[in-house]
Design goal:
6 helices, alpha/beta, six-stranded parallel sheet, 6 strands, about 190 residues
Length: about 190
């Protein structure tokens, strides 16, 4: 798997230097999709930015070079929103969706209004959704509902919080193995 084919999609407020996404960029050469405004995330702006990056990748590598998306929190909602509207979702070989944030939670709804309601459409590529039983930003049942709606394989990570730097994952080799599996799998037909 070519590191340039892995796109890192952080959630609201970006991923800090000790977050496993940032560590993977340094360790494995993965590419972060930079958003114009991490603090006021607008669904339209974020999906347009992901579309730009996917189109640039297609221009560089060709339409057949499969991408793997590695999303955390609101980044998972970004994958669903983008895939529902993009004509280029066939560029994606698979997606690792970690700790999906729920924009409809009372404490998040005002800040994430443009993400409501969440897109609940089946993804056109293979996806794995990893959830923690004690995630403060998404109930376990809601994460299971997202996995079901998106057609994602669901993986229970036990009680690990928001699966971020505060969860003590470090370089998170278990998650990286899943990315490698997604990158090795044949692209969806």
């Amino acid at each position: 798997m070519n590191p340039s084919t892995v796109l890192v999609l952080p959630g609201w407020q970006n991923s800090g230097p000790q977050h496993w996404q940032s560590r993977w960029e340094r360790l494995h050469g993965f590419r972060r999709v930079e958003q114009h405004d991490w603090m006021r995330p607008l669904r339209g702006d974020w999906t347009a930015r992901l579309e730009e990056v996917v189109l640039a990748h297609r221009a560089e590598a060709g339409a057949g070079a499969g991408l793997v998306l590695v999303a955390h929190s609101l980044g998972c909602q970004l994958v669903a929103a983008w895939a529902a509207h993009s004509r280029h979702a066939d560029s994606v070989q698979g997606a690792l969706l970690v700790a999906p944030g729920d924009p409809q939670r009372d404490e998040l709804r005002a800040a994430l209004a443009s993400w409501c309601p969440p897109v609940l459409q089946r993804l056109p590529f293979r996806s794995l959704l990893l959830a923690s039983q004690d995630d403060p930003y998404c109930t376990f049942a809601r994460a299971q509902a997202f996995a079901s709606a998106w057609g994602s394989e669901f993986i229970d990570c036990g009680c690990r919080g928001h699966l971020n730097a505060d969860s003590g994952l470090g370089d998170w080799p278990e998650g990286h193995r899943l990315v490698q599996q997604l990158g090795a799998a044949p692209a969806a037909a």
